[in-house]
Specification:
It is globular, with a radius of gyration of 22 Å. The protein is an all-alpha fold and 331 residues long. It has ten helices and no strands. The chain is 67% helix and 0% strand. It has one domain: Rhopdopsin 7-helix transmembrane proteins. α3 packs antiparallel against α4 and α4 packs antiparallel against α6. It is a multi-pass membrane protein. Its main location: membrane. InterPro entries: GPCR_Rhodpsn, GPCR_Rhodpsn_7TM, GPR_3/6/12_orphan. It is found in: Cell membrane. GO terms for molecular function: G protein-coupled receptor activity.
Length: 331
Amino acid sequence: MILSLAAAMSSGGLPQNTTSSASFDPSSLDPWLDPYPDLPGDVSPWDVALCVTGTLISCENALVIAVLFYTPTLRAPMFILIGSLACADLLAGLGLILNFVFTYLVKGEVVTLVSTGILIVAFSASILNILAITVDRYLSLYNALTYHTERTVLFTYLVIGLIWLVGLILGVLPALGWNCLDDETTCSVCRPVTKSNAVALAIFFLLVFAVMMQLYLQICRIAFRHAQQIAVQHQFIAISTTKGVQTLSVILCAFAMCWLPFAMYSIVADSSYPIIYTYATVLPVACNSVINPIIYAFRNPDIQKGLWLACCGCVPSNLSLRPRARTSSDV
């Protein structure tokens, strides 16, 4: 599925106009209904939307990376994982921009495979980093007493290295022959990914989503159990726990709404389906990389403090100047 997403924007090429002047095509009234206009040289509005989205993704995540890099206090494992996620999304944004350039300015099978590989690595790493953050939050609650002794920065870097290694392996597969460039009949909804590969990867994504959902359910149960055990602070903890559960629900729903449509479409559809449906399911996937910095970075008070210091050299009164210890379970 991740491979199929990566190639969604790499099909390139604009078909020539074979329609006579006497015929009438209703889709010509709305360029959004026809992602490949008949007139040579026209640019698809969908591709423009993806390029603009890529630019927004790049700006957001570059800001997150800059704040994490230039703030010495943000070196805990939680922030390292957030930084890795920001790097993956930044690469995804740059990949979308490059794909637009390769589609309309530099065409060919080589650049198609290059842009496909970049997007594969980026979105693979993004999904796996989100899973790693979810596991990190669960472990910080499940092993609350021993978490900070067992969990080291070195271990975090090893996990991140494994994530990027998996993404890199997936990214080079199309260049090694795992594509449908030689047999267009085997293409999935996204060229040059084959139908069988797209289905396998979509199923893998659904398994990852199921694991995330189970972990978040366990996090909610542990949080409520902790709230019941602290009778003195019962009212405060109850309010805090309810807010945390609501936040977890937003995180899970946002991830599902962005990725599930494309995953399911990759399973049921093939290259014979109208490409507009592919664009309509790929755009929300790209938007997930826009949402990630908001969910995992900009909501964090320590990162907010770093942003204020970087932008205006001051911190609002509602943010303490004293560094506050936060755990990965903070949502």
